[in-house]
Write a structure and sequence with these properties.
This protein has a four-stranded mixed sheet. The chain has a two-stranded antiparallel ribbon with strand order 4-5. The chain contains four helices and six strands, in the order αββαβαββαβ. It has helices at residues 14-20, 59-64, 80-87, 111-114, and strands at 27-39, 45-52, 70-74, 90-93, 106-109, 117-124. The protein has a single domain, classed as EreA-like (biosynthetic domain) (EreA/ChaN-like  fold, 3-Layer(aba) Sandwich). By secondary structure, it is of the alpha+beta class. The two termini are 32 Å apart. The protein is 19% helix and 32% strand. InterPro entries: Emycin_Estase, Hydrolase/PRTase-associated. It holds the Pfam family Erythro_esteras.
């Protein structure tokens, strides 16, 4: 879609959510730490991305304190203070594709309002690239 032609951008899954209604389940991912493949400032693709969530206000950091290597949470079943926290805006790693000093690694979102289920992976490593 072209922004210049004033066609509104659709959020990922919006069309599917409208089509399937309550049968649609939105699944998000979160990572605590590790390395990942990304383009660097020289436009080279490889294992240049690093992540270590040290912001105690971020979803990544808080979920990273859980002692399981990976787990999922059905956010729809949260209640009480957990539901309040999930519905607040907090930083989360945005899954960037390019590393650079002017490119933010996080975005502020409300997990509880953005996803139905969240998959948390505590430590990631880059996939091997075939040359």
């Amino acid at each position: 879609m072209s922004i210049q032609r004033n066609i509104p951008l659709l959020l990922a899954g919006k069309h599917l959510a409208e089509h399937y209604g309550k049968r649609y389940v939105s699944i998000g991912t979160s990572v605590y730490e590790g390395r990942y493949n990304v383009y660097n400032s020289n436009h080279e693709f490889g294992p240049y991305g690093t992540l270590k969530s040290d912001d105690p206000n971020s979803y990544n950091y808080t979920l990273g304190q859980v002692k399981n290597e990976q787990f999922f949470i059905d956010l729809r079943k949260a209640n009480g203070v957990t539901k309040i926290w999930l519905n607040e805006q907090h930083p989360i790693f945005s899954g960037i594709t390019t590393e650079g000093p002017d490119i933010p690694k996080t975005v502020d979102i409300s997990l509880g309002k953005s996803f139905d289920i969240l998959v948390q992976v505590q430590k990631v490593s880059p996939s091997q690239l075939n040359q």
